[in-house]
Automatic annotation (TrEMBL):
Keywords: Oxidoreductase. It is an enzyme of class 1 (oxidoreductase). This is aldehyde dehydrogenase (NAD(+)). Its EC number is 1.2.1.3. It comes from the Bacteria. Coiled coil: none annotated. Belongs to the aldehyde dehydrogenase family. Residues 5-477 form the Aldehyde dehydrogenase domain. The keyword Lipid biosynthesis does not apply. It comes from Streptomyces oryzae.
Length: 481
């Protein structure tokens, strides 16, 4: 922090490889004093950075992207060891995507921050004489942003917060997830080498909630950007509200994939592949995953049979083996949590068609086998709560109205999907879904769309130019013409 390393008074804590259960390394055990030092460093550096020519901010961010692309391959082993991500995820979707985000916001630093407003004739009042009044809306930096990130994509998630925040002239204090903070710490020297002034990027790690809570409560922090569970997000929202801090909260999801009765041919294949991606894509540890398959009665048996074969054929094991498609969950606690949900589904009358038992191989690691659960009803816990594991539940519906009711029946609303041979029908149905994002015949993302959720899936939006909006305040300036 502040351009250098600080020795933590609380020592260090172990970071464990979820595949081998062996020590990866040790991370600093930060405390309130460390958070305070980081916030003070950020506060001292932010004003000068905000006054820096946007072209210079852009140059620094572009250089960060170049260094990430250059050094990324060397960081993959560390990233894999602390996250348990497979080669495909770690090598293809972690560091390259982080570089893309810094590159995107290198351009973003140059986007216009002023919206001119047409002059308006205003009558005289007790406040001021009348006249033709001009105005503009100007985006200003928020100040110091506390970035609290999730464990599933530590570097990507951090880049998605840090890059737009820096582009807008803010300073950041980052609190990575306790399970895998080491790669986030490695970013510090890289950003410094790229020319980022000292004090603008600060990282405080810790094994418990203390540093994050101190960051949210600190009076020197102007905004909290958090990605993680809805339960923690609610706590942050309440605590941040006491200081009227701005918040950007990207929380949990319970994605529904609605497969309509006309989903045949290529659309059918897209639907099957998209739902099946839940198992192999970081072992289901992704908030946008289509973990609920809502399938029309006429296609139900066909889809269950196809997905059962797919799940049974997936290879589970050491994520450093390029042939492995399903790696471990992040921790023993998360594995136990997912197993409890599966057991609960059985108790409530669902059928665990594939998986559901703890794998006997590998002998170490926090693995959950790809699991397919059928005979699920909307009231069951596994149909309503986010599991964050390689589990797909299947629900059936008779018509579009019932599909919409089931899709909207959870407290979440982050990402849903509609698969139909009639894209006009799918568009109309998407408008009825209480979800911040809807994919039609794809689970692919568009990088410029506003990303965030309805209901308990969050507050605010980032992504593309919307990310610049999220990390800025609007200031209105008025003058007589």
């Amino acid at each position: 922090m502040g351009g250098g390393w600080r020795q933590p008074a609380g020592g260090h804590y172990p970071v464990i490889d979820p595949a081998t259960e062996q020590l990866v390394g040790e991370a600093p055990e930060g405390d309130t004093a460390d958070v305070d030092a980081a916030v003070r460093a950020a506060r001292a550096a932010q004003e000068a950075w905000a006054a820096t020519d946007p072209r210079e901010r852009s140059r620094v961010l572009e250089r960060i992207a170049e260094l990430l692309a250059e050094r990324g391959p060397a960081l993959v082993p560390l990233l894999q060891a602390e996250t348990g991500a497979t080669f495909k995820v770690a090598r293809g979707m972690q560091l390259p995507t982080a570089a893309d985000r810094f590159r995107r916001y290198a351009r973003g630093a140059l986007e216009p921050d002023t919206v001119p407003l047409a002059p308006q004739p205003v009558g005289a009042s007790a406040l001021a004489p009348g006249g033709l009044i001009g105005a503009a809306a100007v985006r200003r930096p928020v100040g110091v942003v506390g970035c609290i990130t999730s464990y599933n994509f530590p570097v990507v998630n951090l880049a998605g917060k840090v890059a737009p925040a820096l582009a807008m002239g803010n300073a950041v204090v980052c609190k990575p997830a306790p399970q895998d903070p080491l790669s986030c710490l490695e970013l510090g020297p890289l950003l410094k080498e790229a020319g980022l002034p000292d004090g603008l990027y600060n990282v405080v790690t810790g094994s418990g909630p203390g540093p994050g809570e101190a960051l949210v409560a600190h009076p020197g922090v102007d905004m909290i950007s958090f990605t993680g569970s809805t339960s923690v997000g609610k706590q942050i929202a309440g605590n941040a509200g006491r200081g009227m801090k701005r918040t950007l909260l990207e929380l949990g999801g319970k994605g529904a994939a609605l497969v309509l009765d006309d989903a045949v041919g290529r659309v059918r294949e897209a639907a099957l592949g998209s739902v099946a991606s839940t198992w192999a894509f970081h072992s289901g540890q992704i908030c946008t995953a289509p973990t609920r398959l809502l399938v029309h009665d006429s296609l139900h048996d066909e889809f269950v049979t196809a997905l059962s074969r797919y799940a049974s054929a997936l290879t589970l094991g050491d994520p450093t083996n390029e042939r492995i498609s399903v790696g471990p969950l992040i921790s023993a606690a998360q594995r136990d949590r997912v197993e409890a949900y599966i057991a609960g589904a059985r108790e409530q009358g669902a059928t665990v068609l594939v998986g559901g038992e703890r794998p006997t191989h590998p002998a170490t690691g926090f693995y959950v086998a790809p699991t397919l659960i059928t005979d699920v009803t909307p009231e069951m816990t596994v149909a309503r709560e986010e599991l964050f594991g390689p589990v797909v539940v299947v629900l059936r519906f008779a018509d579009d109205d019932e599909a919409v009711r089931i899709a909207n029946s959870t407290s979440y609303g982050l990402y849903d999907y509609v698969f139909s041979g009639d894209t006009g029908r799918a568009w109309r149905l998407a408008g009825r879904l209480r979800s911040g994002n809807v994919g039609i015949n794809t689970v692919q993302r568009h990088p410029e769309t506003p990303f965030g959720g309805f209901k308990e899936s969050g507050v605010g939006r980032d992504g593309g130019s919307f990310g610049l909006h999220a990390y800025s305040e609007l200031q209105s300036i008025v003058w007589p013409s």
